[in-house]
Specification:
The chain contains 6 helices and 6 strands; from the N terminus they run ααααββββααββ. By secondary structure, it is mainly alpha-helical. It is elongated. Bound molecules: protoporphyrin IX containing FE. Belongs to the cytochrome P450 family. Its cofactor is heme.
Length: 233
């Protein structure tokens, strides 16, 4: 039960039940809009709180794309540091902190516990992805870990320590689109603008409890163009 407690409240359960009752089309729309938006907001917030990482991501853009044109979708394949920033944001703040329901189809024994068929399970992805036995400095924003020690760990449901899109038959069908859009929008913002927080206070990283984990405080950012005026036309 320990892994469920932080999120077990009636609002979350009601939201999960409602989500399960939605048609495929409705879940596709809900699954594909909020999730990408909050992933980008968390990534931006983390970068604003870690100016060194922000500088690295912008320098990478300057090297691989330059300042004479806007970044495009195919450029993002070469932006290893930016990709690592998105992965690290998905690790620390998965848009869906809880998985969908799974139901045991047969009696099982797991870790010494007897689990009867029909038992329903929800994974606490948020907690798994901050497990200190797997992730050194689990609550720190360290995109570099995905270029070094955790380079081989991806988000596609094969590595159970990182499951921002879930795993198995009911994993997110929008994984590729979600990743690509998060990378492209973030890259476009970072290339086109100097971004800074509106005050010297760190960005509040408190998350709301809900089906999608959003920042409790709306993110405010100051932006300043960083490309020649002709590029924006
Ligand atoms: C960064 C973006 C996204 C994140 C982090 C995300 C995350 C997730 C997660 C954690 C699940 C539950 C998986 C499980 O229980 O194993 C899920 C399910 C789902 N997602 Fe996404 N998602 C994203 C983008 C999208 C997009 C772009 C679409 C559609 C265009 C989409 C459509 C869905 C649908 C329909 C489901 C339900 C699948 C099922 O129950 O079989 N998602 N998503």
């Amino acid at each position: 039960m320990d892994i469920l407690l932080p999120y077990l409240n009636s609002i979350v359960l009601t939201a999960i039940l409602l989500f399960c009752m939605l048609s495929a089309k409705e879940s596709l729309i809900i699954g594909g809009t909020d999730t990408i938006t909050v992933t980008i907001i968390w990534a931006l917030s983390l970068l604003l709180n870690n100016p060194e990482a922000l500088k690295n991501a912008q320098e990478e853009l300057d090297v691989h794309v330059g300042k004479d044109r806007l970044v495009n979708e195919s450029d993002t394949e070469r932006l290893a540091y930016l990709q690592a920033c998105v992965k690290e944001a998905l690790r620390l703040y998965p848009a869906g902190p809880l998985s969908g329901f799974r139901e045991f189809s047969a009696d099982c024994t797991i870790g010494g516990y007897c689990v009867p068929a029909g038992t329903r399970l929800i994974l606490n992805t948020h907690k798994i992805q901050r497990d200190p036995r797997v992730w050194p400095d689990p609550s720190e924003f360290k995109p570099e870990r995905f270029l070094g020690s955790h380079k081989s760990v991806d988000v596609k449901g094969q590595h159970f320590e990182l499951l921002p899109f879930g795993a198995g038959r009911r994993a997110c069908p929008g994984t590729a689109l979600g990743l690509q859009m998060s990378r492209l929008v973030l890259a476009s913002l970072l290339q086109a603008f100097e971004i800074s927080p509106p005050s010297n206070e760190p960005i509040d990283m408190t998350a709301t409890a809900g089906l999608t984990s959003s920042p409790a405080t709306p993110l405010q950012v100051l932006v300043k163009p960083r490309l020649p005026a002709s590029v924006y036309e």
